[in-house]
Design brief:
This protein is mainly α. It has one domain. About 75% of the residues lie in helices and about 5% in strands. Strands 1-2 form a two-stranded antiparallel sheet. The chain is elongated and about 55 Å long. The protein starts with a helix and ends with a helix.
């Protein structure tokens, strides 16, 4: 019985740290938005532009810098949520949900280059709803 409990704890820890790692990495990917739209780096997959919604909405240089800051906010939010998950904080789910909703909005606005993020954020939000009910 003790071996079973230890194996269950190990599997639980693997899932916990795996989820936190994926969340943290998703946050790091958000930093690409800041780097591209603040012209801190040239990223082939994420070229600098001043338009959103596939070129339909020109936000200008200042607007795209604000957009870059929002990518940074998403990055920080996911990293904080990962920390909260690992340290079993009561607020980690709220931080994760808020970060995923922000990230979903950003990826929709920049659909042409960030479409994969839409799927990731929908999965995150679905898991936040389903897993606690299991």
């Amino acid at each position: 019985m003790l071996v079973y409990i230890e194996e269950k704890k190990i599997m639980s820890d693997v899932l916990l740290y795996g989820a936190a790692f994926i969340t943290f990495m998703h946050g790091l990917i958000h930093l690409m938005g800041l780097a591209a739209y603040w012209k801190l780096a040239e990223i082939d997959a994420l070229p600098y532009k001043t338009t959103l919604l596939d070129g339909r909405w020109d936000v200008g240089d200042s607007g795209i810098r604000v957009f870059g800051v929002l990518w940074l906010a998403g990055a920080v939010g996911f990293m904080i949520a990962a920390y909260g998950l690992v340290t079993d904080q009561s607020w980690w789910q709220a931080a994760m949900a808020a970060s995923a909703v922000l990230s979903l909005a950003l990826t929709i606005l920049d659909w042409k280059v960030a479409y994969a993020g839409v799927a990731v954020n929908i999965v995150i939000l679905a898991l936040l709803i389903v897993v606690p009910r299991l």
